[in-house]
Amino acid sequence: MQRTWWKSPRPLGLCCALGLGLGAATAQASAFQIEARTEAQAYQIRSWRGSSADEPVLLPRRRIVQYLGLNAFELATGQDLGFESNLRIWADFGLPKGEAERIDGLKSEDAELLHAYVRYAAGGFEGRLGRQIYADVSDILAFDGLRARYVTRLGLGAEVYGGLWVTGAGFLGSSVYQPDGTRESGRQSLDAGSEVTKTELQPVFGAKLLLEDVKGFNASAGYRKSMVDGKTDIERATVEARYGRGLGLNVLAGVDYDVLKGDVAQVRTQLRWDDTRFAVTAEALRLSPVLSADSIWYYFAWAPRDEARLRVDVFTPGPLRFYVQGLGSKYNENVNPDLALAAYVDAEGAPESTSVGGAAGTAWRSGAFRSALDVTYRTGYGGDQLWADLTGGYSFDRERITLDARVSFARIFDSFNARLGGNFYGAQVWASRALTRAARLSLVVEQNVNPFSDSDTKGFLLFDLKASL
Q1: From start to end of 48-178, where are the E strands?
Q2: Shortest CA distance to 339 belongs to which of 300, 293, 304, 291?
Q3: pLDDT tens digits, residue range 102-143?
Q4: Quick check: is 80 in a domain?
Q5: DSSP readout, 45-79?
Q6: How many domains does the chain have?
Q7: CA-to-CA distance for 131 and 135, rounded, in angstroms?
Q8: β partners of residue 350
Q9: 70 forms bridges with which residues in the sheet?
Q10: What pTM value is reported for the model?
Q11: Residue 320's domain spans which residues?
């Protein structure tokens, strides 16, 4: 038998080779990562109806939660173009759908898109389009929209962003990052006899001037505004600055100003000195809730908490490290001094508005063993409180099997809250085993004993899957 071989022309063969080479390069350049977690939850919550302080009633909860994340990197060869997402789906088997519909904001099943955006970066430019999470000294929010920033080689830049604020009433929305003091299911019409729930879109937009990595300095000045039904809902101005080069002096400062109210809402200043054997940190804070202008609490229950902390960390040459911390807080009272209520707030025997205390802790990590102990004591506002937390864990077979345990204790005495008093005990065990390089199975069991709910048990079964393609 005579065989005949067909030879392609050299130009065609060269093109085929280039095509195969480019295809292989494209396939290798792009990378995909899939992360999934399945949670089976069993626990109890205390019922406030048909129960008393001496005979609390616990309602069983049975939930299944599924997380799914898909990330893609370098979708175009040689370009910093990617996609990141995280979806959560859950169902509560202990709550029939018909009963859930009778209570505002309550659901027996739902799907929530936590974030999903396309990201592109080139030179000093970075842009994101989609559902994304944004954080600064003012707040943490999620919005559907566009964020773009550009920083020159000199370290000067600007950032703009805008879109729709993600709320629990929106499409695949979650109430985790929506403004406090608002209905999760949307605003209820106040018309007489109306049961219509309005879910207005809430535009949000903002901008920042940036200074990045200029001899260790980073700073920004920003403005943010959101609107509901054409009216201002939240309006903030922020200034942030940071300096640090590792060891030595590190400084952090940030101020959030509520333009609508005309008052300082959030403040954080931190001075830290880092050495190879110790670190000293001094911190001053002002904390207040980020309330919507639609909330009645914004006008009648807005009162910040001021706090100061001083902490010393010591790092020994061995596996031991420990810290001590002193702290003090002042809970401001937003009460009109001309009202009769002010006399009761400042009367003898009224609750204190200040709290002082301290904390100490130690941590040990050697080989496969790890352990930590933290103890905190506070007195004043909230009564006398003693908290202790002991954790420990061990890894077997190169971390294929891990076992962690935690024991907690709290002793609280508050003369103005008799139910929240006595000794509180808690214990938790977390066992985990790697089935493969990409899959891990974990079991968590928790038991709490206290005068508030007598005794309650929680159990969680988790299956984690992480694969890279």
Answers
A1: 57-73, 80-92, 109-122, 125-135, 140-151, 156-165
A2: 300
A3: 666 678 888 999 999 999 999 999 999 999 999 988 889 999
A4: yes
A5: EEESSS--SSS-EEEEEEEEEEEEEEEEE-SSTTS
A6: 1
A7: 14
A8: none
A9: 34, 85
A10: 0.81
A11: 30-183+299-468
